[in-house]
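Much of what follows relies on a compact textual record of a protein's fold. An example makes this concrete, so a full record is given next.
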Amino acid sequence: MAIWNLGSINADMVYSMPHLPEPGETLAARRLERFLGGKGANMSVAAARAGSHVGHIGAVGSDGHWARDRLTEYGVDTRHVVDAQVPTGHAIIAVDDQAENLIILYPGANHAIDPAHLGQVLSGAETGDILVMQNETNAQVDAARLGRDLGLTVCYAAAPFQAEAVQAVLPYLDFLILNQVEAEQLQVATGLGAADLDVEHVIVTLGSEGAQYFHRGAAPVRFAAHKVRAVDTTGAGDTFTGYVLAGMDRGMPMAQAITLANRAAALMVMRHGTADVIPDLKEVHAARLD
C-alpha cells in the first residue's frame, strides 16, 4: 500500500528581528534560518518516518531543488515533484524578541500543478491506497474526484481553512481532519456538526486536550493528549495527521493509529522547527511521556 500526497512544498525563511517593522521602516535582521516547510511536505515527512511509502505530488521552482532533495533524504518518494516556471512557495517570517511574528506567504509553484500530471501519477496507484490533500495547492477537487473514481481512500486536512474549499471536496471524502475552530466554522457554513457529516472517518484535533474521533454510525471517542512542556507547536498538527495516515496505511485500527499519532505530536511540540525535526517511528515508540 502507499500514501499519495498532493501537497505543498515551502521554504520557511525565518528572520530574527529586534522588533517587528513598522510601515515604511527598514530594519536589519539579526539572523536568517531556512527550513523545509509547507503542510504537504510536513505530512509527507511524518508519514514516511512513521513507516509508509509516500509519493509526494507537487512542484518547486528552479530555486527549490534543495527542498526536493531534503524530502528525498527524509524518505519521501519525490519522483513526482516537478519543476515549475514560477518560484518555489515560501513563507517570509519575522520573529521578534517577544516571539511575536508576522508572515508573508507566497504560494508560488504550489499553485502551478498541472492536473494532467496528477492524473498520470495516480494512474499508478492501487485500489485502497491513500490520497491526501491540504488547502495549499491547486487541483484539490480534481484530485479528490479522481481518487474516488480510482477507489483510493480520499483524505483531506482542512487547513488553511476555507469553508468553500472543504465543501467542494466533501462529496468525495473518506476521511476529514480539522481542528476544533475549523469544525465550528464548517458547522456554521453547512449546518452540520462533525458527527453529522457524510464522511466515514472524521477527526477533530483539540490541541493540548487531544482529539475526538467520529466514525460514521458509532459514538465519538475522545483521545487525551500527553502532558508535555511545549516549546513550539508549529507542525504538530501535520505530524499528527501524517502518523494517523501511516497507521491507516499499515492496517492499524483507528484507535491505535490515533494513539501513536498523539505520541508523535507530543514529541513534536517539544522541538523547535517543522519538517526537519519530525520524530521517526523508533523515537515515538521509545519516548517516555506523561
